[in-house]
């Protein structure tokens, strides 16, 4: 075999991807970071100075603090709800007969393929002034006043849980699939009740799936745009919609860039430390 | 009074009869094997004993008590699964002590009993490892310890050695049998490996398509199989077709063999079974004249394929240190009286 | 279902209702005969589906999305096949870093990618161009394609390829006749997942697309922020039906769960 040729082959093979990514991912990301270090003047535009003022403003201003707080609170709440409803659903799916299971997997996972805009529109229709909520409230005799969850934190939470819970289900489902069903039988035969088997044998083995599902849901909620933009609107801004407004309404790009960089850093730090945690905790136990 | 007893035990899945009308009584301390090809119902039977499957018909008694309706987690039987089914998220000690914990046994006693049982299977120094960090043989012994530590009335083994390599499997057979005799626990082994069943069991239950073919001690099963299926499945054998020609005489082509024909009338179609190692092969007459077609060296023995008036036969002879027959040689076969087994031919 | 308890069944029914409710709501509203948002209480009407035909904007945006996804997914796969094979089957210095780099867009919020491309393209004069949109989508979806190629190539033994070499095949023939067919399921799955991801993408595209390169999700988003009317519901219904058909095909050939384990 040609020594040099073989040694360089993997670099040739990965070269197209690397070149493409350096030019079209590396450069834009770097430029955004540099942009966030410039200041902005409403009359003359982007300045050529170097400053951390944008970061200081975002981190110090109570307006942005509130938005960041709301975003991470929302992410946490959505994650917790997804665990609470997604884990049992994945377990139920895993216990179904294969015919029902394939139907319901389609129902539960299928929405992932449908555009987030469409799914959020559904909630907007349900939440809106003449939506289902109002009809239910009127039918139950709470008066004719329209009930709306549009532009509320609750509404955003419900819609985001709907958008993201399939990720939790699929992640838990994948780790349930790896469990040796005989290990549950072994639990019963050793005297454990059904509940004990669930708690002591099944759930701990599903833990890697629950944790990785959580990090996916958390990260995607923290950076979600479409759903908060449509359901939350201007009244319930989150980080992504705030950055959008800085870029496309206020036109203060450097400030928007600083928000984006902070969002990215928070995202990466949380994902990386979570992965490290999972690795440390489970390296000895699972493959 | 037998210790474990099945009465007309049966299991059906839809139209499929997995186990049909099984009757068996097992004594305390006995080692019983369920032997049969896959799909014969042996594992289904084991799962019914364990309580993981509910029988369609029949009853199971343990020490005189009807346990047919007792759920698995109240039966208290020890079971070793084919995959071992260890809890991957628990250490060896946690795995072994799980059953004791379910019985509400105090921690100090739990640890003590775990230690003792792990010592019995020679795993003391691995108590803090996770299953992933153990070899196949070690995992197998953890599964055994987990089943034994609860001091079960009956130990159920579902193909426990099938995932081990050949050498380890043979060692484990001896180890497992010695341990079982030491503890005296009543044991049921499910296996498709006839050597495993022959080497470990007090009695073997041969199963075929949900039915019991024969129940016998290993030697008796080998020497006096009740059917051509058993003679084929347990050990190797030569089967030749013939018919009864006179009292205690069977004709095959032009050859006449002396066999115990019992009450069978002349003219009846029968099969004669003779095991390859029962032949005495000689370079001289007298005997049945055959030609050697192939000679295969197996180390401890030779396997010959020979052809003669009985058709093709397999013959095994011990290796005496030299190649006595090669392809094309003529040889004469003889055998001791009683080496032949006669079966009525089924359609 | 018979081995599930009553509580589990009630929970499951509520869960499924929750998942389907907004989709059914969209479909129901799209069949209204009224000029405003309402449920079709007077029988089903197709007037809002006819209305789509009178709004070529949506149809143009649909084709824009289809072309964009087709091209971007194909480029992503072309990048991913050699890179995936190299990463899965060769040990070389920097392999982990290269793999992490090519998978890194998964960790970057789409919004961040969007603002980065907005600034980058406007500074190099590609702002609002179709080319820019395609390139941005390639960056976004390459990780999905790469992951499926990687998982197809990782378990692949070199025995079959060595056998072909000893039988006298050239290296290129080995790739064409042995290696490629073996990783084809992963490649096809990666292409499909990339296509769908690109087709549905909104957050990044909102920054990159100009009025002349509006994708369907972007067009729909802008429409919704202006007004929510039965027209947007009927467009969404068409999209739901199309997605459902794709889903059936995917499920038939791959199993949906396998596809999504790659997505998560």
Commentary on this structure:
The complex is a heterotrimer of chains A (287), B (347) and C (264). Chain A is 76% helix and 1% strand. Chain A has 12 helices and 2 strands. Chain A has a two-stranded antiparallel sheet. In chain A, a hairpin with a 3-residue loop joins strand 1 and strand 2 (45-46). In chain A, helix 2 (53-60) crosses helix 3 and helix 9 runs antiparallel to helix 12 (253-282). The longest helix of chain A is centred in the first third of the chain and has 34 residues, at 62-95. In chain B, the strands form 4 sheets. Chain B has a 6-stranded mixed β-sheet, with helices on both faces. Chain B has a 5-stranded antiparallel β-sheet with strand order 13-12-11-14-20, with no helix packed on it. Chain B has a 5-stranded antiparallel β-sheet with strand order 15-19-16-17-18, with no helix packed on it. By secondary structure, chain B is α+β, with helices and mostly antiparallel strands. Chain B is built from 9 helices and 20 strands. Chain B has 2 domains: 4-227, P-loop containing nucleotide triphosphate hydrolases (Rossmann fold, 3-Layer(aba) Sandwich), CATH 3.40.50; 236-344, Nucleic acid-binding proteins (OB fold (Dihydrolipoamide Acetyltransferase, E2P), Beta Barrel). Chain C is an all-alpha fold. Chain C has one domain (56-263): Orthogonal Bundle (MetI-like fold), CATH 1.10.3720.10. The longest helix of chain C is centred in the N-terminal third of the chain and has 34 residues, at 56-89. The radius of gyration of chain C is 22 Å and the shape is globular. The mean pLDDT of chain C is 89. Chains in contact: A-B, A-C. The A-B interface holds A 180, 182-183, 185-193, 196, 200-201, 204-205, 207, 284-287 and B 50-52, 71-79, 81-83, 85-89, 98-99, 102-103, 130, 132-133, 146, 150.
Characteristics:
heterotrimer; A: 287 residues; mainly alpha; MetI-like fold; two-stranded antiparallel ribbon; 2 strands; C: 264 residues; 12 helices; globular
Protein topology:
The complex is a heterotrimer of chains A (287), B (347) and C (264).
Chain A: H1 3-35, E1 40-41, E2 45-46, H2 53-60, H3 62-95, H4 98-109, H5 116-127, H6 132-139, H7 153-177, H8 181-189, H9 194-222, H10 226-232, H11 239-250, H12 253-282
Antiparallel strand pairs in A: 1-2
Helix pairs in contact in A: 2-3, 2-12, 3-7, 3-9, 5-7, 5-10, 7-9, 7-10, 8-9, 9-12, 11-12
Chain B: E1 4-13, E2 16-26, E3 31-35, H1 42-50, E4 57-62, E5 65-66, H2 72-75, E6 78-80, H3 92-102, H4 107-120, H5 136-148, E7 154-158, H6 166-183, E8 186-191, H7 194-200, E9 203-208, E10 211-216, H8 218-223, H9 228-233, E11 238-246, E12 249-252, E13 255-258, E14 269-274, E15 280-282, E16 288-297, E17 301-308, E18 311-318, E19 330-334, E20 341-344
Parallel strand pairs in B: 3-8, 3-9, 6-7, 7-8
Antiparallel strand pairs in B: 1-2, 1-4, 4-5, 9-10, 11-12, 11-14, 12-13, 14-20, 15-19, 16-17, 16-19, 17-18
Chain C: H1 6-30, H2 47-53, H3 56-89, H4 95-103, H5 110-124, H6 130-154, H7 159-166, H8 171-200, H9 203-208, H10 216-226, H11 230-253, H12 256-263
């Amino acid at each position: 075999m040609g020594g040099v040729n073989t040694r360089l082959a993997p670099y040739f093979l990965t070269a197209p991807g690397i070149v493409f990514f350096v030019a079209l991912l590396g450069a834009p990301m770097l430029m955004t970071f540099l942009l966030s270090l410039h200041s902005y003047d409403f009359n003359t535009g982007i300045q050529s100075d170097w400053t951390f003022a944008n970061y200081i403003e975002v981190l110090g201003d109570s307006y942005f603090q509130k938005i960041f707080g709301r975003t991470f609170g929302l992410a946490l709440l959505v994650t917790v709800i997804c665990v609470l409803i997604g884990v049992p659903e994945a377990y139920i799916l895993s216990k179904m007969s294969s015919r029902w299971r394939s139907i319901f997997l389609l129902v539960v996972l299928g929405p992932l393929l449908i555009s987030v805009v469409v799914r959020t529109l559904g909630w907007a229709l349900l939440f809106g002034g003449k939506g289902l909520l109002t009809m239910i409230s009127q039918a139950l005799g709470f008066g004719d006043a329209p009930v709306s969850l549009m532009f509320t934190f609750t509404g955003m939470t419900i819609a985001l849980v709907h958008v993201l819970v399939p990720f939790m289900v699929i992640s838990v489902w994948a780790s349930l699939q790896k469990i040796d069903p005989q290990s549950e039988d072994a639990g019963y035969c050793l005297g454990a009740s059904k509940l004990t088997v669930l708690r002591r044998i099944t759930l701990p083995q599903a833990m890697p799936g629950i944790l990785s599902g959580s990090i996916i849901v958390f990260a995607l909620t923290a950076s979600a745009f479409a759903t908060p933009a449509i359901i939350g609107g201007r009244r319930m801004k989150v980080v992504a919609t705030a950055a959008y407004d800085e870029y496309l309404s206020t036109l203060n790009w450097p400030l928007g860039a600083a928000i984006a960089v902070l969002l990215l850093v928070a995202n990466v730090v949380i994902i990386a430390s979570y992965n490290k945690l999972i690795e440390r905790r489970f390296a000895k136990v699972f493959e | 009074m037998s210790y474990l007893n099945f009465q007309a035990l049966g299991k059906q899945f839809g139209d499929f009869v997995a186990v049909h009308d099984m009757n068996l009584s097992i004594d305390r301390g006995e080692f019983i094997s369920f032997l049969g090809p896959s799909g014969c119902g042996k594992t289904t039977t084991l799962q019914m004993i364990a309580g993981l499957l509910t029988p369609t018909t029949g009853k199971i008694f343990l020490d005189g008590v009807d346990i047919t309706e007792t759920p698995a987690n109240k039966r208290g039987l020890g079971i070793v699964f084919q995959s071992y089914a260890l809890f991957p998220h628990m250490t060896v000690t946690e795995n072994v002590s799980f059953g004791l914990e379910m019985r509400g046994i105090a921690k100090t006693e739990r640890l003590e009993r775990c230690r003792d049982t792990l010592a019995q299977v020679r795993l003391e120094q691995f108590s803090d490892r996770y299953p992933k960090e153990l070899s196949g043989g070690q995992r197998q012994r953890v599964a055994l310890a987990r089943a034994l530590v609860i001091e079960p009335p009956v130990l159920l083994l579902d193909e426990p050695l099938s995932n081990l390599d050949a050498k380890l499997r043979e060692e484990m057979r001896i180890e497992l049998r010695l341990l079982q005799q030491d503890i005296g626990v009543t044991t049921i082994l499910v296996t498709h490996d006839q050597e495993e069943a022959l080497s470990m069991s007090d009695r073997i239950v041969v199963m075929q398509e949900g039915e019991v073919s024969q129940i016998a001690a290993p030697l008796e099963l080998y020497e006096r199989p009740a059917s051509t299926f058993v003679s084929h499945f347990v050990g190797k054998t030569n089967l030749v077709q013939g018919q009864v020609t006179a009292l205690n005489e069977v004709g095959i082509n032009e050859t006449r063999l002396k066999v115990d024909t019992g009450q069978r009338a002349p003219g009846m179609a029968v099969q004669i079974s003779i095991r390859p190692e029962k032949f005495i092969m000689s370079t001289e007459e007298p005997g049945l004249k055959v030609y050697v077609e192939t000679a295969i060296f197996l180390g401890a023995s030779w396997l010959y394929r020979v052809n003669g008036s009985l058709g093709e036969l397999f013959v095994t002879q011990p290796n005496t240190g030299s190649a006595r027959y090669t392809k094309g040689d003529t040889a004469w076969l003889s055998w001791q009286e009683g080496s032949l087994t006669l079966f009525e031919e089924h359609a | 279902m018979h081995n599930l308890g009553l509580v589990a069944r009630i929970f499951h029914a509520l869960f499924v209702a929750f998942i389907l409710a907004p989709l059914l709501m969209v479909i129901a509203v799209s069949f209204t005969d009224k000029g405003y948002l309402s449920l079709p209480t007077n029988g089903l009407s197709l007037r809002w589906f006819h209305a789509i035909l009178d709004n070529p904007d949506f149809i143009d945006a649909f084709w824009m999305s289809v072309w964009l996804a087709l091209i971007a997914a194909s480029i992503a796969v072309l990048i991913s096949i050699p890179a995936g094979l190299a990463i899965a089957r060769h040990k070389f210095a920097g392999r982990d870093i290269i793999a992490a780099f090519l998978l890194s867009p998964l960790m970057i919020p789409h919004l961040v990618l969007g603002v980065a491309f907005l600034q980058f393209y406007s500074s190099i004069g590609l702002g609002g161009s179709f080319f820019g949109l395609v390139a941005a989508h390639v960056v976004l979806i390459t990780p999905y394609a790469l992951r499926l190629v990687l998982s197809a190539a990782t378990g692949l033994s070199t025995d079959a390829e060595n056998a072909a070499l000893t039988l006298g095949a050239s290296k290129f023939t080995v790739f064409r006749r042995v290696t490629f067919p073996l990783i084809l399921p992963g490649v096809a799955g990666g292409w499909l997942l990339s296509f769908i991801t690109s087709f549905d993408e909104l957050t990044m595209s909102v920054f990159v697309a100009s009025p002349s390169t509006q994708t369907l999700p972007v067009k729909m988003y802008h429409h919704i922020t202006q007004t929510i009317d039965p027209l947007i519901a009927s467009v969404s219904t068409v999209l739901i039906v199309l997605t459902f058909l794709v889903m059936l095909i995917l499920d038939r050939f791959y199993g949906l769960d396998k596809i999504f384990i790659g997505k998560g």
